Here is the input.
Amino acid sequence: MLCLGTDFDPTLSHDAQVKAGAANLQRHVENARAYGVPVVVAVNKFASDTPGELAAVREASLAAGALGGAAARRALHACQSRFRVRS
Here is the structure.
């Protein structure tokens, strides 16, 4: 899983890497919300992603002020169907 803008540290677990990079995600959510845009974070899910990594991204998304978070093989489709977003 991509570690959200942090340098890779092989001594940390993947879940910890994701949590360490949450500040980058938070800044992106804050930037979008500053323009009054409702934010939903969508990530592409890969076979190598662990449930802990996906949960860490969702938790970071909600903590940053996003309305929700979704992980799917096709992230855009997941957000459109879950939150009824029109493209």
User: Anything to note?
Assistant: Residues 14-83 form one domain. Residues 1-5 have pLDDT under 50 and may be disordered. The chain has four helices and two strands. The longest helix spans residues 51-64.
